[in-house]
């Protein structure tokens, strides 16, 4: 799986570099640079064709849409995984706190029920097999 992604990454890097060079040529265009510009544009087309050829090798890779939101916000997409883990840990602590609270509630409730309704609670525990 790493090789197809590496191939795609290198093709994208070449494509980006070609676009950067075209931007430089166009921003300070001189008529004598027309041939160079034409070559760069042809390289751009070739780069797009190469990227298109690689799409079949990476079509089974699913990227969460949130990763694209990170990129749009100017964040490093590799931080997405870290943020997901941090969110999961936070949620895990929250749920653990709720579980602990329910356990304490159950213990208190059983204690009060035992004090108020000892016979009924004994029957309940016998039915459940909690004794």
From TrEMBL:
Provide the function of this protein: Component of the Mediator complex, a coactivator involved in the regulated transcription of nearly all RNA polymerase II-dependent genes. Mediator functions as a bridge to convey information from gene-specific regulatory proteins to the basal RNA polymerase II transcription machinery. Mediator is recruited to promoters by direct interactions with regulatory proteins and serves as a scaffold for the assembly of a functional preinitiation complex with RNA polymerase II and the general transcription factors.
Where found?
Answer: Nucleus
Major subcellular site: nucleus
Q: Does the keyword Nucleotide-binding apply?
A: no
Q: Which InterPro entries match?
A: Mediator_Med10
Per UniProt, which keywords does this protein have? Activator, Nucleus, Transcription, Transcription regulation
Q: What transmembrane ranges does the database entry give?
A: none
The record's Gene Ontology biological-process terms are: regulation of transcription by RNA polymerase II
Gene Ontology annotations for the cellular component aspect, listed alphabetically = mediator complex
Q: Report a single Gene Ontology molecular function.
A: transcription coregulator activity
User: What gene is behind this protein?
Assistant: MED10
Task: Please give the subunit comment from the record.
Answer: Component of the Mediator complex.
Query: What is the protein named?
Result: Mediator of RNA polymerase II transcription subunit 10
The family this protein is said to belong to: Belongs to the Mediator complex subunit 10 family.
């Amino acid at each position: 799986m790493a090789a197809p992604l590496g191939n795609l990454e290198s093709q994208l890097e070449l494509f980006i570099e070609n676009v950067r060079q075209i931007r430089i040529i166009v921003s300070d265009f001189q008529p004598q640079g027309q041939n160079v510009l034409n070559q760069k544009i042809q390289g751009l087309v070739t780069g797009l064709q190469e990227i298109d050829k690689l799409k079949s090798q990476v079509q089974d890779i699913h990227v969460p849409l949130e990763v694209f939101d990170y990129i749009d916000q100017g964040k490093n997409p590799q931080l997405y995984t870290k943020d997901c883990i941090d969110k999961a840990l936070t949620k895990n602590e929250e749920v653990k706190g709720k579980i602990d609270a329910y356990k304490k509630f159950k213990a208190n409730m059983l204690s009060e029920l035992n004090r108020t309704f000892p016979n009924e609670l004994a029957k309940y525990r016998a039915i459940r097999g909690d004794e």
